Amino acid sequence: MTLDELRAALAGVPEWAWLADALVRVRADPDTVGPFFARAERKLGREPLVADSPWTAGRAGRALLLAEVADPERIAMLYRQGDAAERLAVLAALPLLDLGDAAVPLLHDALRTNDARLVAAALGPYAAHLDADTWRQGVVKCVFMGIPLGAVDRLDDRADQALAGMLAALAQERAAADRRLPADAVALLNRLTVPPPRKQE
Amino acid sequence: MRIFDPHIHMTSRTTDDYRAMAAHGVQAVVEPAFWLGQPRTNPGSFADYFDSLIGWEPYRAAQFGIRHHATIALNPKEANDPRCRGVLDLLPRYLDKDGVVAVGEIGYDSMTPAEDEAFAAQLALAIEYELPALVHTPHRDKAAGTLRTLDVVAASGIEPGRVAIDHLNEVTVGLVRDSGCWMGFSIYPETKMSPPRMVEILKEYGTERILVNSAADWGHSDPLLTVATGEALLAAGFTADDVDRVLWRNPVEFYAQSGRLDLSASPAGPSFAGSSIARGGS
């Protein structure tokens, strides 16, 4: 969803007035954003904004607050001072904000954690700004942690022979322990290494 | 038997403990911020610790199907170290977090002027952030410390029903009951309180405003002593409903006063069950 779509969907939640007031105050003084950002989820709710959406009302409200702040330094501070849900909200909002590659260090931080939700969130659309080495390590970390590869944005576009080599090595280690890679990782490895069948003439 | 342990330091416990707790009916815990055995020397150490209490530890608990909330405070022992006083300035940021359901543990260790100051300042923060307060009572000079604690609580203006006074025993329980504060008991293998003694206290004082916890930490302690207490209560003739009140509904009622207690299914849920904790990888 775009910021405008999030804003339109949020206008229907009961606590919209709270958020509208917060956005006005943050525009006037960006230093006030911290408490609004912390409280957004319990004020606005944790229900999906529209059916089957990963955007809860609280997370969407946080995205609008971040858009109001706009400054990469402040956004990084909200991430660093946030609990897990606040950090997830920052990561989810990054592709919607006009930050260039200024927030890449936040992805590095999330990828260093051992929280599967943060690792998965770091490999969304904003991961386009990650260099190839870091991105491959992130994908293999997903496989290692059992995170479904559906979390990785543009997986097949970016997957290359170097990633295939890393996955094959992991598969070999797993086999030595009489264990297997998750099915989606095996499928990816096959797509990268098995030539497609020739079309029948 | 469903159990809510209202005071346990899971940071110091292993995944085996989480597994055993879940298997015995522990479905929710509150982890108060406290000292770690090794003294800390700067506020940054506390920031990392507090971040863990609202980040990593709830995630770790969720892998075992256990809901984890925290209480945040500068503890009385470290309040005496001037290098740690800056922690008080960090607290407002943490007291606004969703996973924080009280200010605590606050109170007295050695009843010094520095402890007086930190205790009063943090009771004021509990009022400002509309949070209950979890108050530790000292291990030495406990009865005098409990009396002084109740004076400070009364002077702060916080409602007694929003305060739990913890680590009580036969000597101090009556004082706290008369104050209107909640009465916390930490069931320990040898010290503080035992399951049979807890049974006698509940016979005498009833189940209202009583909290039973394991206070398990890095010392000699046992996260299953809440379970053992529930079993001792049943064996002594208390009903299953009595036990449910003491071990589940009472702590829910106390911490729900924060407006932030969330006992719905965890978002970290079983979808990644155990994979990162069990080191599912190679």
Strand order in space, largest sheet of chain B: 1-2-3-4-5-6-7-8
- The radius of gyration over CA of chain B amounts to 18 Å
Strand content of chain B: 5-15%
Name the average pLDDT of chain B.
Answer: 93
Q: Using the coordinates above, name the CATH class of chain B.
A: Alpha Beta
What's the shape of chain B?
globular
Fraction of residues in β-strands of chain A: under 5%
Core attributes:
heterodimer; A: 201 residues; mainly alpha; 12 helices; B: 282 residues; alpha/beta; TIM Barrel; eight-stranded parallel beta sheet; disordered C terminus
Structure description:
Chain A has helices at 3-10, 16-28, 33-44, 57-69, 72-80, 84-93, 104-112, 116-121, 132-145, 155-158, 161-176, 183-193. With 201 residues, chain A is mainly α. Chain A is elongated, with a radius of gyration of 20 Å. The model of chain A has no long low-confidence stretch (mean pLDDT 95). Chain B has one domain (3-263): TIM Barrel. In chain B, strand 1, helix 1 and strand 2 form a beta-alpha-beta unit. Mean pLDDT of chain B is 93; it is low at 266-282. Classes of the chains: A mainly alpha (201), B alpha/beta (282). Chain A binds chain B through residues 34-35, 38-39, 41-42, 46, 81, 83-85, 87, 113-117, 144-147, 170, 173-174, 177, 179, and chain B through 51, 54-56, 58-59, 93, 96-99, 259-260, 267-268, 272, 275-276, 280-282.
